[in-house]
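Predict both folds.
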Amino acid sequence: MTDNSDELTGYEEEREPDPSDSLRTFGAVVQALREHAGLSRAEFGERVRFSKHTVESVELGRRMPDESFVELGEEATGNTGALRRSAKFLTRGEAGLAAWFRRWAKLEKIAVSLCTYECRLVPGLLQSEGCARAVFEGTIPVAPDVRLEALLAVRQERQKMLYERPTVPFSFIIEEHVFRRRFAGEEQIRGMFDHVLEHSAPRNVTLQIVPLEGGLHACLDGPVRLLETPEGRRFGYSEGQQNGRLIGDVKEVSLLQQRYDTLRSQALNPEDSRGLLARLRGEL
């Protein structure tokens, strides 16, 4: 069995964007030119008017350099033009995903099974464009239009998994009150119901709803996601305000899986769940 424990190292403290290839390449160019000029990071920092720690972050591909860094860096390294030219191709890593979600998203792509329990909102993999847009428009701080469109694009790209991976079982358990939330006008809400019904129709997708009268149940501690890798390793993921936690501890993941399996027996079966959604749509 492959040990993925290294993937968890330092994860819970991650807040900076993952370095993109272009950021790493630019950083390597900065370092090479700086060293060729015989400058330490501190000395180079004085020339570009940034701290040596900022210089280090740029060289390691952790920070997007601003225009003044590029221009002053050119002057400090002999005006070769290399920094100006390479800066035009800089991009941030996976701009449409929160930093703390990226490792889970990578595991999602290779998983042989995925389970999701949600009690706050429709899971991202099942959200209609109107629902997703309403969620992103309601975030604080307010997302600029470019950022909002990037978020929507990544969400829609992730949703392709449901169709492009027809042999992978996707299980969703969602609280009924989530579907009763009025996030927009009736037309958009109908669109959300239609979207969920369509995307939960494939044979590899199972949707169950926990009814309002269901009472207390096994997953009241909050939303949870679970997956299994091709090597048989299981991971969990939980998310809160401005943070997310990838869970790899075998005992903890086992406990979460037991809770999820118990909730499966407490929720409505898939047929009754889809019937409930159809009725809720008809009430609009």
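Second protein follows, with its predicted structure tokens after the sequence.
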Amino acid sequence: MTNPKHTTSKSPYSLGRTARRLGAAAAGGLVLFAAGALVVQTGAWHRFTTAVGATPAAPAPAASREAVEDAARQAMLAARAERKKDKEGKVAAPLQPTGPDGYFVPPTEAEMPDGPEGEAIRRGRDIFIDTPRHAQRYVGNSMACAQCHLDAGRRENAAPMWAAYVQYPKYRAKNNKVNTLEERINGCFNYSMNAQASEAGKAPPPGDDIYKDLMIYMYWLADGAPTGEEMRGGGYLKVKETDLGYDYQRGAKVFAQNCALCHGDDGQGRKDESGKLRFPPLWGPEAYNWGAGMARIDTAAGFIKANMPLGKPYSLSDQEAWDAAAYINSHERPKDPRQTGSIEEAREKFHKNEKSYYGKEVNGRILGVGVARAAGAGHGTATLAAPAKD
């Protein structure tokens, strides 16, 4: 007669063995999930696909993206709350929240706190979105922070503020010194917003409340971001120069077909019915000056590739992005404020080896002389319409 106990202990379907199998499967699944999350969050997958020349994946549907991003932030906040209650140091620090494409997820407007801190964050947001209105005294053109840093500083591959905040203080070759975040913002006023042509004739002075409000807004956007890390999507996209190089004459056609609708045939932007500038000028006295990073063709090409035309990222080829950038930056704009001597001297000192038309002849004239605002030009507001995340 068969021993029932013996049969049960050897059966592959015994309760004990089934429980062990389920436990092993669950553990294996968790390991695979954690490994996959780690690969995405560290940017390893992005580096791999970039190395093999893969085309960026199509954006996830809006509803799915929003749900994943909200879940990532809620998971981080919940983990943070558990860690605060931990008295023995056993709870690990929460991972940074990332969306379905592996980019960092900043907080939403609904997460802004109340009280004095929240009021300062909102002031910083308003300055960021509409700089000519909320920092009027120090803005010498029609540019606003949000025109180069899209979605109010949230958009990946548009130099988002959540990535910028965690990088400072740091050394910058542009001025050959370690810069604080305040000094970096000061540079934006001097170059991107041409503060030299403003009412004050300069950027905000050190310690001004404008810096404090902008920095607390950036600090809030960086909630959950790792200090000192080069974050994926944290700057402008790097687009390798094509075999054909860049050409402003080819770029004129790309501009007419893809850019003029918003920025105008003359590149001076477009206003809404109230007279408020909705899309920014790309050259001329109301645009960024020759010292701005966007005046470099490679920087502009990366921005264009990942973000333009607005609402249609990655729709232009690399060649089209390079050529459009060349065309935009083949026009005169305000003078580089660092230029105190000749254009040749300034090019050698500040623009050497950069991909720029500064100090070069285009259409029969040397660029870099600069163009100034007409006397009495107003300090109008300028905002950039931004669609919801793709």
